[in-house]
Amino acid sequence: MSKKIKTESVDYLFEAILSLQSKEECYTFFEDICTVNELLSLSQRFEVAKMLREERTYLEIAEKTGASTATISRVNRSLNYGNDGYDMVFERIEKK
């Protein structure tokens, strides 16, 4: 866990997120807390990560998601050298 983001405010935000009980509640909360562009950027990164795990090429990913190669590269770096957060979530989604 990164000490850079570990703050009381971030803890409080995560508690709020963990309290959400449905996809509809997520839409309601995230539409209030994020701009449309912020939410679309987050979802784009998540889609990029999924496609990278599927071993798709940067070109395929860029064409499908509209993500820049810089964004794809940053997500790839997180997948390879990050805290394994993407992998944890993808494994849980796959089990459902």
Overview of the molecule:
The chain is mainly alpha-helical. It is built from 6 helices and no strands. It has helices spanning 8-19, 23-33, 36-53, 58-65, 69-81, 85-95. The mean pLDDT is 95.
Summarize the structure.
The chain is mainly alpha-helical. The chain has six helices and no strands.
Largest sheet: none
The N- to C-terminal Cα distance equals: 26 Å
Unreliable spans are none
Q: Indicate the percent of residues in helices.
A: over 70%
Rg of Cα set: 15 Å
Q: Count the helices. How many? A: 6
% residues in beta strands:
under 5%
Category from helices, strands and their pairing: mainly alpha
What's the overall geometry? globular
Mean pLDDT: 95
| Number of distinct beta strands | 0
Please trace the helix and strand order, writing H or E for each element. Answer: HHHHHH
